[in-house]
Amino acid sequence: MPWFHLLIAGLLEVAWAVGLKQTEGWTRLWPSVITVVLMIASFFFLSLALRTLPIGTAYAVWTGIGAVGTALIGLFIFHEPRTTARLVCILLIVSGVVGLKLASAPPA
């Protein structure tokens, strides 16, 4: 269950990062309110995951999910440049997140 909580926290991080762009510097009320709610929800689920998972692993995975998800939304929704270097860097983050997950698995 902690990994599920961490996944939800990471997806909520993506949502609030995108929401942060929509606030236009906190000048738009409803996007700002929604963004704050998403932030609180993301931190809540992260805190649930931290009951069991090591902080270094959980925080790195949480930020990795947020970074990759936000970068992909930037590429596909906001039409940011799709350079080879950007895609390779996203893959490196994904491999780091997967590596941390595998390294955190209990011994057989």
Can you give a write-up of this model?
It is a multi-pass membrane protein. Pfam families: Multi_Drug_Res. The chain crosses the membrane at residues 33-50, 57-78, 84-103. One of its GO terms (biological process) is xenobiotic detoxification by transmembrane export across the plasma membrane. GO terms for molecular function: transmembrane transporter activity. With 108 residues, the chain is mainly α. The chain has one domain. It is built from four helices and no strands. It has helices spanning 2-22, 29-49, 55-76, 84-103. Helix 1 (2-22) runs antiparallel to helix 2 and helix 1 (2-22) crosses helix 3. The longest helix is centred in the middle third of the chain and has 22 residues, at 55-76. It is flat. 24% of the residues are buried. The mean pLDDT is 94.
Mean pLDDT: 94
What count of domains describes the coordinates? Answer: 1
Beta-strand content bin: under 5%
Q: Can you count the beta strands? A: 0
Query: Nearest-angstrom radius of gyration?
Result: 15 Å
**Secondary structure category:** mainly alpha
| Helical residue percent band | over 70%
Specify the biggest β-sheet.
Answer: none
Note the gap between the termini: 19 Å
Regions with little confidence, pLDDT below 50 for 5+ residues? none
Shape: flat
Number of helices: 4
In N-to-C order, the SSE pattern is: HHHH
